Amino acid sequence: MLAALALGPADFATPASSHSCTQELASWINAHGGRVHLGAATVAGLRGLVAQRSSAVGDVLLEVPLECVLSTAGDGAPLPAEPPPWTASLPWNVQLALSALERERDEHWRPFLQSWPAESPALPLLLEPEALSAAQDDAFEADADAACFWLHEQYLEACDAAEAAGLDAPAEPAFRRALQLVWSRCLRLRAGPHGTRRLLVPMVDLANHDGVAPAALFAFSAAGRRGACVRLYAARPLEKGDEVTITYGDHPNAHFAKYYGFVPRHNPHDTVSVALPQLLELSGAAPPSGACWVETSQRAAQLAARLDAYETSGLDDEEEDEDEDEEDEGDGEAEAVVRVAEVVAAARLLRDLRGSMLQLAVAGPSGAPARMRALQRPPPLYPHLEALPPEARCDPASSGGSKALGAGALQWSTILIRCQRTTLSLSAVWLFSGCVGKWLTRAGMMAPPDVK
Ligand SMILES: C[S@@+](CC[C@H](N)C(=O)[O-])C[C@H]1O[C@@H](n2cnc3c(N)ncnc32)[C@H](O)[C@@H]1O
User: Fold this and answer.
1) How far does residue 426's CA lie from ligand 1's centre (Å)?
2) pLDDT tens digits, one per residue of 329-348
3) Which of 26, 253, 302, 304 could form a disulfide with 419 if both were Cys (CB 3.0 to 4.6 A apart)?
4) CA-to-CA dists, residue 369 to 41, 202, 300, 445, angstroms
């Protein structure tokens, strides 16, 4: 069943050879006043960036002048390559995709746009419903479905806008490819006087994701060789040939699958929402006599508060006494609460299983290390951070890259409970039947989970 969901690796083959293509790209950036100390390499089927020389923390690995960057429109000072005005009524990502498509005919942009993969990543929205169902996640399936419709609607909107501007509409396959590449390749960046923008930055968009210990940070800088630019800084000491990764942000696995077509092997920021009635059912607790587990928002709030207390301090005597008191009141709710808490304590197990499910869903049971390969985990990053230049340090409103390196970025709580009417949003809880997990373990696809 899961094998049916396997998505093939994206076709990153570039027209001539990936290598000559990125050499041309580097020459183009240099010719416009940039600096490139990086090359491209393909390891296990996945193209990425590598260091061309050894670097210390804070060294500039890459400097891309703004005239080589495609950007969204914004309120601040204009940037050289914003989307064409006729796209202004469309969402930012559609504008950026149309901007790239329009510039395909422009010789200036050829080295950049030619470095893009021939095909977009294999995203869940391209899957058939039966295949998607193997992910065992209703919300994920619905989201992929909605994305597919949304993309088609946006195409129709784009055609209308082009027609109104007296232009030819793009072909739908080219539009879809461009939009999917925008999803998987653009950065969000606070760009000084230009305000916060989404940018397509040549060469930076060849960096693969490492959310735990990225090798580099991206940031806007006003101090480039020819003025403002986007820079990549070394976030740890690098040797020649080391892979240069960045972080795409603190997203849950479903986000990576949806927009990037892969799921990180280690993701401390994974989250999933579980409906309270399902959680209660999973707890094995019997509902109050004659009722089913559809909670009022008030009861949901009480449960959330109790689970929170359980998570932070355990059920101490006082709380147990309280529980007993409530049990005396007679509707059996207190017992249910304790049992729900036990389920929540198994969140770690469920998270591990969930990660495996999504990885299998995206990569297939053969393990498909090409797209899911474990990235080398270098030593902890934080001791070196002080050496970074100020503009590359944490700015919570800025890029995912900077944000992920901020203090506390790795301090994630196992369980985050938010109560919203009848739904509890539980970080790192994955709901699926125990028999699937057992089946995976038996089939040797997954090591038995380590529950602490
Ligand atoms: C910004 S591009 C990175 C460069 C890309 N590998 C290329 O050759 O153009 C993002 C895409 O690279 C792939 N990718 C990035 N990081 C990855 C990772 N850690 N594991 C698997 N695939 C990854 C995914 O297909 C993703 O959609």
Assistant:
1) 28
2) 444 555 555 455 555 544 44
3) 304
4) 16, 26, 42, 13
